[in-house]
Design brief:
CATH superfamily of the largest domain: P-loop containing nucleotide triphosphate hydrolases
Strand content: 35-45%
CATH architecture of the largest domain: 3-Layer(aba) Sandwich
Oligomer: single chain
Strand order of the largest sheet: 5-6-7-3-8-9
Number of helices: 9
Length: about 400
């Protein structure tokens, strides 16, 4: 394995035997072995999974429930052994999978900190030195002398997560641990992730949060029915994940539609255009869209996404984010919309993906990848993703 590779997964498969007959005695355990084998089913949890994760890479794993994500993570952590294939790791690995494993409910929060710290390999002196940081991060200062069994499940996970962040590891495995606590605590968790990324830590993230995939991950894979069905840029994998949940409408959209457009079709875009515009004296872009409803839809949400030629997401928004609520779009009714976007873009080619959702964003009516495109020409080029108009002033003092 190359020195730049942190984790190498080669043709990994995992099967579980599902017995159908109940064994109620020790005798039955031995005498019925042959008979039970005939009645067993084999569950193929993973099938020939292969990928590499480089040192310092933030790697995402997504997929629906039952697709094999957690099984794969437990194989990477060494909890399960693969039925076939192999996993090689280079560096110390710490899993954030079953947070709180080893906690004793009969001990206080304070006692559990020192107990869990010992399990992580810290001395009593080292834990004492970081104790206040652990407690402050978990926001449990008032509860550390209470028994853990009196904590809510959220409080226990917050304490466990705070402990796990102290682990000194080269590779971190994280399984959907951020869906706990209030908004302030979740913000702390995301800040911790940003620090990991800044420090070039190797992180494997299993999540259903496509925003986290897009923001943090360098690459990602998607599992479906125990196999890898998508891999590569996080924006592409996140889009495929969203698309997987969308049911194609059997009426009104036909089978000849572009593969880059999907949704149930209750509202569809009929026109998407980008034109230049002035905004407060500066150059801007005008995104004009027209949509029509085939059915009456309550509180539709209209949005867009702009990405560059490398398919990196630059910016996006929707009517819900900017608090422009549209109560209803009746069947047969059309709507004209206009977004004005400051021209912060660098010299290059860009694509616009408009989307319509409803039921608080859980159902997609129309998602149209690369519905239109535009090109920006700027004389003053920079090597960065955005290139807004900037002002620079200075005062030069005469030497004394």
């Amino acid at each position: 394995m190359s020195d730049e590779i942190a984790i190498q997964v080669e043709n990994v498969s995992k099967d579980f035997v599902l017995p159908h007959e109940k064994v109620s005695s020790v005798k039955g355990l031995f005498t019925g072995a042959t008979k039970r084998q005939k009645g067993n089913d084999i569950q193929h949890a993973l099938h020939e999974i292969g990928f590499e994760v480089k040192h310092g890479e933030f790697f995402g794993i997504v997929g629906r429930n039952g697709s094999g994500k957690s099984t794969l993570l437990k194989i990477l952590a060494g909890i399960y052994q693969p039925t076939a294939g192999r996993v090689q790791t280079h560096g110390k690995l710490v899993p954030f999978i079953e947070l709180g494993v080893g906690f004793n409910p009969e001990l206080t929060g304070r006692e559990n900190v020192f107990l869990n710290g010992a399990m992580l390999g810290f001395s009593h002196k080292e834990i004492a030195a970081m104790y206040n940081e652990i407690v402050n991060f978990a926001e449990l200062e008032r509860f550390m002398d209470q028994k853990l069994k009196n904590y809510s499940s959220g409080m226990q996970v917050r304490l466990a997560f705070s402990m796990a962040t102290r682990a000194q590891a080269d590779i971190l495995l994280v399984d959907e641990v951020l869906a706990v606590g209030d908004a302030d605590f979740q913000r702390k968790c995301f800040d911790y992730f940003r620090q990991l990324k800044k420090n070039k830590k190797t992180v494997i993230l299993v999540t259903h949060d496509m925003g986290a995939v897009r923001e943090y991950c360098d690459r990602a894979i998607m599992l479906e029915k125990s196999e890898i069905v998508a891999h590569g840029l996080p924006s592409k994998v996140a889009t495929e994940y969203t698309r997987m949940f969308m049911e194609q409408s059997e009426s009104g959209r036909g089978n000849d539609r572009d593969e880059k457009r999907w949704g149930d079709g209750v509202i569809t875009y009929t026109d998407v255009r980008v034109t230049p515009k002035q905004l407060k004296g500066s150059q801007a872009l005008n995104i004009k869209l027209t949509a029509v409803a085939k059915e009456t839809v309550e509180r539709p949400i209209f949005g867009f996404l702009i990405k560059n030629a490398a398919f990196t997401n630059i910016l996006g928004s929707n009517s819900q984010i900017i608090r422009q609520r549209i109560d209803q779009l009746a069947a047969g009714q059309s709507i004209d919309m206009e977004w004005t976007v400051p021209n912060i873009f660098n010299d290059g080619h860009y694509y616009v993906d408009p989307a319509i959702s409803y039921k608080n964003g859980s159902q997609i009516a129309d998602w149209w990848e690369e519905a239109t495109e535009f090109t920006v020409f700027k004389e003053d080029k920079t090597p960065y993703i955005v290139n807004p108009d900037l002002e620079f002033n200075y005062t030069l003092e005469q030497p004394k």
